[in-house]
Amino acid sequence: MKKILALVMVSLIAVTSFFASGANESKSDDGTITLTGYMQIDPANPAYAGHNAVVEAFEEAYPNIKLDIEYATGEAFHQKFQAMAASRKIPDIFTCYGGARTAYIQDPGLVLDLSDTDYLTDEFKSQFKPVTFKAQGENGELWMIPPTLAVCHVVFANRAILDELGLDYPKTFEEMIAQVPTIRAAGYYPISMGNKDQWVVNSWLLSLLVDRTGGPQWFMDAAKGENGAKFTDPAFVKTLEIIQTMCEEDLFSPGVNQMGNGEADQEFYQGKSVYLIDAGWRSGGMDSQLPTEFTENIEMHVFPAIEGEVRSNTSTAVTGEGFGIASAIKDTEKADAAWKFISFYTGEEGSKIFAQYGDIPTCNIDFSEIEMGIMQKKYAQFQEEHEMGYVFDSVMNGEGVSLLNANIQAMMMGNGDPSEIAAQYEAWVAQNDTNRE
Amino acid sequence: MITDRNKKLSYLSLLLPAFIIYIAIIIFPVVVSFGLSFTKWRHFQLKGFVGIENYINIIKDPIFQIAVKNNVKIMLISVLGQIPLGVILAYLLFRKWVRGSQFFEMMIFLPITISSIVVALLWNRVFSPVGIYTSFVRTITDNPDYVVKIFENEKHAIVPVLFVLLWQHTSLYMIIFLANLQRIPKSVFEAATIDGASEWTIIRKIVLPALTAVIYTCSVLAISGSLKSFDLVFAMTGGGPVHYTYVMALYLYQQTFTFNNYGYGSAVSIIIVVLSVGLITFCQRIFAKISNKYN
Prior knowledge:
The complex is a heterodimer.
Chain A: H1 2-24, E1 33-40, H2 49-61, E2 65-72, H3 74-86, E3 93-97, H4 103-106, H5 122-125, E4 150-151, E5 154-158, H6 159-164, H7 173-185, E6 189-192, H8 199-213, H9 215-224, H10 234-248, H11 261-269, E7 273-278, H12 282-289, H13 292-295, E8 298-301, E9 315-318, E10 321-325, H14 333-346, H15 348-356, H16 374-385, E11 388-389, H17 392-395, H18 398-412, H19 418-432
Parallel strand pairs in A: 1-2, 1-3, 6-7, 9-11
Antiparallel strand pairs in A: 3-10, 4-9, 5-7, 5-8
Chain B: H1 4-36, E1 39-42, E2 45-49, H2 53-60, H3 62-94, H4 101-113, H5 116-127, H6 132-141, H7 159-181, H8 186-194, H9 199-227, H10 231-236, H11 248-258, H12 262-294
Antiparallel strand pairs in B: 1-2
Helix pairs in contact in B: 1-12, 3-7, 3-9, 3-11, 4-7, 7-9, 9-12, 11-12
């Protein structure tokens, strides 16, 4: 009996060892390297057609590198990735954020710091917009290279309605308010914006206002609690007051806090409103959903000038997510293969493909060579014309931002005071936000 | 001959698999959650033992207080709304006081067969600022600024959710009650009618005593279901506007999976378990008294 048991145990160990070694094998006999991947992408969604085309082009260009990618989206992606992080078993390449969203893999040191490798040569970096290599970690780490830039503030304007009403895009916030009676009298709504999900006003308006009233340096100081900057400073209170004024002056269409983001877009697309405050990437959807005669009449602006602003004509952008490399494969052939994939995906080859599918890449490419939609051309031009500030919720911790967003929503519905909201937020940040640690 | 030892072994072998599964999927997570509820976590990393701090913070948190109030309202609408309405509808259909009772049975049962997410989207499509109802009212009243204001009301924003819950779940209880009413012999009703009993007397003396056990079961289902309400609220309002429609399960979800506060989230889950067990025990005592009265 004991002999049989011993035999079974030895066989089991032998079998598991065989499979275990097979799983760790990085290179097959024919020299093919298999890279495992976990990406926050839905390849069946037409919005990711560009990703599919780039992956296909990479596999053609590098037949000796095989990609074994698992896809997931939304919260499901993060939940599974958190479990992988907990077990310290993460794939070779994966979706990774520059901010705190994927801190659960960055904090335990599971992601390779690209700035600490030989991959990032000056020649490679020179291909990209400077914002691409803005430090992502507290100590200047660079976890990923964002393939595209996410512009988070655009005021889309319907030129046809403006002409019909004899108006032009306002130069100042006061001018914008002064347009309200004319717009309302003609049966239109001034601004469509869907803040039902609470983060919309924060990401697409508050960030911009903070950039204008305080500037990026003040914002980073307030986030870190340095140089005496705090969220109770007049700069931040003023941003909240502007949002409150916009509600009081009926700038938003009715039910702004009941309307989903997509519903606000539809309101603008149906020609019911003059302006739409949204993210820049909405332009891609406009090209595919709206008739040419409509998109030709859509202009892309930034919020008009605010009295006392420290920066003017700016928008906000975040470098979004890119692909990180597992630190466990550092200095191996796998890491080199992973870098080949990332440099192809974000570099000129991948970027040209992305541009064909409506994305504006971080890599500098010649757009004249690429056939682009009307709005996409406007979006590319918009990025050239406007300096970008920080997106508030990509810097500050989510829990505090959630509290702030709820308070802003209450204020927009008439139940809140800007100074009190600022004080509450500052108290939370001072006590909990990791930026202050 | 079967010995006592063999008997015990056979009982054990039959009981053990179910017992192990129960321990693994019910008791073990509850015990682990209880342990975690005294800790602080960040990004899947244990930061330390914090004693009962999580519980104190939860109870002090105004968002959690709103969530508890909303759960109580959901529980009340379930126990005092869905169940009585279910009994009434089942009795109407059972006594065939409406023509086409089979059609109504099917129509009333329909909402429970639809996913809560679909129901939420459907209601949102109708009542949102660009929804059918809102557009219709704007047209007939010539008021382009009309919106359904109750959705923004601090105290009453939960009412539309309660209404949808009532509409959706009453049918389940109606079917349960109808099935139990059909088990009462028709001769009992005939005898009561011949004896000159009024309809109210039949309900009080025959129907309600016969349904006591099932009303208790439905109440337990309603209470436990109310305390873990999540899907409909999540899809319909997401807890908003502000935190006006928050419920405990949504609070738990956000703390645990959005903010990664695993210790804090575990403490919320323990509070939900304690409340559920407490309320069900309370309910059990009330029905024990009612049963004794009928006996």
